[in-house]
């Protein structure tokens, strides 16, 4: 009788080992999640938002757009610098380098506009309403992201939301602003950042890791 049960018992043991091995592989390949308050990229986003929330608004669309975008761009630059410091993927590091160059140049243009501009009337409160809606939407989208602690993935995810808020704020200036200088910058930002969002989405589809 012992001989009769030896083969089934061996098969059962082999199946158990296979199942354990399979579970171990799944565990090692599974998505690893990091708490938002422990994530460097998310902390940089929240720090940027605190500065923008503290900005005194004038209700002049071009003035407020320019002041806000200087802070917003600086936030993107800081995130891109974090990607260059700790990211590993060549494409994301190249994107970070391009973001820094483009947004530093645009900050220079915004500051040049602000240096020669004085608040104009009539005031347009609708611009700030749309601007803050875009920023609130950005932070809600950030808070819904699955953050992994992988610098390249977190950069690609959070920068999409960051870019989308810049696009929506730029569209508000196109609709409500009065100056050709800010409108030209708004169009440039929309065109550049729409292309960069597409690049990040395509990269994530290939490199999301789960």
UniProtKB/TrEMBL annotation:
<feature type="domain" description="DUF305">
    <location>
        <begin position="32"/>
        <end position="114"/>
    </location>
</feature>
<protein>
    <submittedName>
        <fullName>DUF305 domain-containing protein</fullName>
    </submittedName>
</protein>
<dbReference type="InterPro" id="IPR012347">
    <property type="entry name" value="Ferritin-like"/>
</dbReference>
<feature type="signal peptide">
    <location>
        <begin position="1"/>
        <end position="22"/>
    </location>
</feature>
<dbReference type="InterPro" id="IPR005183">
    <property type="entry name" value="DUF305_CopM-like"/>
</dbReference>
<dbReference type="Pfam" id="PF03713">
    <property type="entry name" value="DUF305"/>
</dbReference>
<feature type="domain" description="DUF305">
    <location>
        <begin position="128"/>
        <end position="204"/>
    </location>
</feature>
<keyword id="KW-0732">Signal</keyword>
